[in-house]
Amino acid sequence: MPEELVARHIKYHRKTRYKICISGAAETGHCSMDTLQKAEELGREIAKQNIVLLTGATTGTPYWAAKGAKSAGGLVIGFSPASSEAAHVKTYHLPIDYHDDIVFTGFEYSGRNWILTRSADAVIIICGRIGTLNEYTAAFEDNKPIGVLETTGGTADYIRDILEKSYRGFRKTVFSPDPKELLKLVMQQVEEHKKTF
């Protein structure tokens, strides 16, 4: 009987779609000029590869990634810090468009960040501020594959330096300024990570 359960699990697992979290700046005034275009392009590429896009159901770079994914027919799931759609829109002033579903965690930003990164197979950082750094370190501590879209400004441009000065190594963090190349590197890390199960 246990062998049958394992066989069914493997058969199901092969059909499970990968999930990538886009983490980045909700306020993008400090980001590079082409950051939002790169976020949108990355969202499209994720959708084209039949990968589910996860976001913090927020504005800025995650929003543009969601927009790109939806333009390519992708599936987008958001994780909100709010406990309801009403609070999401009225209290947090966050968008609901370009998402197929939003999970209302009710755990504020720091709790939402942990649930968001834990739910993903990999995390990609685009620009960012302190909340993005929080999502990066949560994913890093979980030993997740992480991609950093360099030259987008903010947190994304500091992570390499932070890692070099923190004496913990780079683990599964990869870097590129090109969205397509970065996604390719991240998916290689995801496939390698999958082999360790």
**Spatial arrangement of strands, main beta sheet:** 4-3-2-1-5-6-7
**Series of secondary-structure elements, N-terminal to C-terminal:** HEHEHEHEHEHEHEH
Classify the helix fraction into a percent range: 40-55%
Low-confidence stretches: none
Number of separate strands? 7
Q: Classify the fold: give the CATH topology.
A: Rossmann fold
Radius of gyration, taken over Cα atoms and rounded to an integer in Å: 16 Å
Total domain count: 1
Largest sheet: 7 strands, parallel
Average pLDDT metric: 94
In CATH terms, what is the architecture?
3-Layer(aba) Sandwich
By secondary-structure content and strand pairing, the structural class works out as alpha/beta
- Principal-axes shape call: globular
The CATH class, by name, is: Alpha Beta
Strand content: 15-25%
Multimerization state? single chain
Number of helical runs?
A: 8
What features would you describe in this structure?
By secondary structure, this protein is an alpha/beta fold. The chain has one domain: Rossmann fold. The protein has helices spanning 2-15, 35-48, 60-71, 85-91, 108-119, 130-141, 159-166, 179-195, and strands at residues 19-24, 52-55, 76-80, 101-104, 122-126, 146-149, 173-176. A seven-stranded parallel sheet has the order 4-3-2-1-5-6-7, with helices on both faces. Helix 2 (35-48) crosses helix 3 (60-71). The protein is globular. The two termini are 22 Å apart. The model has no long low-confidence stretch (mean pLDDT 94).
